[in-house]
What we know:
The longest helix is centred in the middle third of the chain and has 19 residues, at 77-95. Helix content is 48%, strand content 0%. It is mainly α. The protein has helices at residues 9-17, 31-43, 61-69, 77-95, 108-118, 125-134, 150-165. The chain folds into 2 domains: 9-69, no CATH class; 77-147. The model has no long low-confidence stretch (mean pLDDT 85). The chain starts with 8 loop residues before the first helix and ends in a 17-residue tail after the last helix.
Amino acid sequence: MEIDPSHSKATILSIVKQSNLNITQPYLLSKGELFVAVLSELNNMEYEIEFYNPTLPFNNKEEFILFLGQAKEKLSYYETQQISFIAKNIISFVKSGYDYNKTSYNTYGEIECDVEKIKEYGDIFCVRTAIKYFNLTRDMNNQIECKISAIIQSQLALKNIWKNKCIPTLQKKTGSFVISFS
Length: 182
């Protein structure tokens, strides 16, 4: 078992803080020492591991080990900007009333091609928005799904749960209020 070097020290440190792993003062360790400490703790563990943060993409020891072994796919800043630009062009096309004169698109096929390019990057917010708007033009059987990582899926699910539990309330404030106009 090995930890992929693409994981940062901060990522592993935050996971250790949000779990019951018994590693003393993990923030004082270097990245390599922290990786060795986590691996030795996982190998010698005699108790059930618990994760306190529900947004983490794993719930047990086996899933955690799989997560540590996988390489993180990270886009460069330039690639993220390119994908965001394409998504914003699709959003502007849809919001302009599907008017080709107001955007850089000439045919519907160009838009479909751009959507196919960006659907793999659903972790970027504007990509999810662009695909949601683009799916308004398609019938229900031909909807395009964007690929979203497990971390973002769990964060979105948690956000929706909080949103559904939120009860809007009316507040009444009393007292004297001072208003001045200059």
